[in-house]
Amino acid sequence: MDFAFSEEQELLRSTVRTFIDRNYPESKVRELMAGPAGNDPALWRQMADQLGLQGLAIPEQHGGSGFGFQELAIVEEELGRALVPSPFLASVVQAGSYLAHCGDEAAQKDYLPPIAAGTTIASLAIVESSGRWDLGDVGLTPHHASAEPRLSGTKLFVLDGGIADLILVAAREPEGGLSVYAVPSGAPGLRLEPLHTMDQTRKLAHARFDGTPARLVGQRGAAAAALQIALQVTAIALAMEAAGGAQRALEMAVEYAKIRHQFGRPIGSFQAIKHKCADMLVEVEAARSAAYYGVWCASEENEELPALASLAKSVCADAYFQVAGDNIQVHGGIGFTWEHPAHLYFKRAKSTQVLLGDSAYHRERLASLAGIAPPEPAG
After folding, report:
1. What does the alpha-carbon distance between residue 369 and residue 379 come to, in Å, rounded to a whole number?
2. How far is CA 374 from the centre of its chain?
3. What is the DSSP letter of 356?
4. N or C: which end of the chain has fewer CB within 10 A?
5. Which domains, and CATH codes, for the chain?
6. Smallest Cα–Cα separation from 227: which of 179, 193, 275?
7. d(C-alpha 114, C-alpha 165), whole Å
8. How far is Cα 284 from Cα 370, in angstroms, rounded to an integer?
9. For the residues of 59-111, what is the DSSP string, one character each?
């Protein structure tokens, strides 16, 4: 077991960071978060054409590079570090993971190449009226009376749903099993409603279906296992985002503590600030350790993956929220202003806490997996 990244993987990190620093400065992030799309199509295509990021973990026969989850996780950590608004988590990690595990070769052939090329943005729609990212709460039922299945109902909090070209919809069959249906963005009866959210760097939408024709992706009634894996690896990718964001918040606090003077000396020389920065470092290192362990489990797809997904998500999200709040405190009054980026990290940290289920939800899952709480209901 080796949690260190290889020389080639660190070169990937360096390349991605250089690309982000050049193309996504704070001014660009603010420009994108103020718009309804939250994505620059030209830069999104550039990511695919020049760096091949969208196809990193997609098999070569489907237009990708055939690497693994570790490479995806490095990209997610760098995207989180700079708060890059993009549909990478939704399209490449979440939807891509389901397609990779669904066992439907025809759907993989049709959908994975355009995702890898950056010409199709996909998203996975799961959440319904309960607001929970729990497969047991999926209740939307497909209708099979006509030649093709049709969907009616609502999905909430669809990641980048407002700009998605393809929505993969989790549905419960009349006989009880879970299936996934593909719906293109222009399908009749589909209405995508962008949401106004606190974290403007991450776009969400509601998807409403009214007799919308759909295509079955995977085996009917047998999608639960692939959906669980998609949610688990997405939780770990989100943990990597959080680790990257927490690291940058720590760096901002330390940089400011060195240059801000009070009573003729840098505030970083005061014991209270030293202690706060030291506590922030402990949180960041704990988050990184949990996230990297989760990445190893996801890349191996071993038996620890379900537990590590919940552990990494809860630890990293809480650490990010703590560090982002401490960063504001170190900055003092300026940290509360709109012009300073500290509040952007704080808002992203808060949205990360609730996305895919809050920390209490994931600790309950851990307790269930450890046998000290009732087992979860099957999807």
Report:
1. 15
2. 28
3. T
4. N
5. 224-369 (1.20.140.10)
6. 179
7. 10
8. 26
9. -GGGTS----HHHHHHHHHHHHHTT---SIIIIIIIIHHHHHHS--HHHHHHH
Tokens for 377? 């209901």
- For the chain, the average pLDDT equals 94
pLDDT, tens digit (0-9, with 9 covering 90-100), for 131-151: 999 999 999 999 998 889 999
Residue length of the chain: 379
Query: Distance between alpha carbon 62 and the CA centroid of its chain, in Å?
Result: 23
Tally helices (H) and strands (E) across the chain.
11, 9
User: What pLDDT does 378 receive?
Assistant: 56
Nearest to 299 by CA among 70, 102, 66, 2: 70
Which parts of the chain have pLDDT scores under 70? 1-3, 373, 375-379
Cβ-count burial 222-245 (b if 16+ within 10 Å, e if not): ebbebbbbbbbbbbbbbbbbbbbb
pLDDT in tens, 237-272: 999 999 999 999 999 999 999 999 889 898 888 999
Residue bearing tokens 């071993």: 302
Give the β-pairing of 215-216 and 261-262: unpaired
* CA 351 – CA 343 distance, rounded (Å): 12
Rounded CA separation 129/77 (Å): 31
Q: What are phi and psi of 121, to 5 degrees?
A: -105, 120
Q: At a CB cut-off of 8 Å and minimum separation 6, what does 76 contact? A: 88, 89, 93, 237, 238, 240, 241, 244
Query: If we measure between CA atoms, which residue out of 85, 100, 15 comes closest to residue 55?
Result: 100
The CA dihedral of 273, 282, 354, 214, to the nearest 10 degrees, is: 130
Separation of alpha carbons 227 and 233, rounded Å: 10
Is residue 98 a contact partner of residue 159, using CB atoms and an 8 Å limit?
Answer: no
Phi, psi at 125, each rounded to 5°: -105, 115
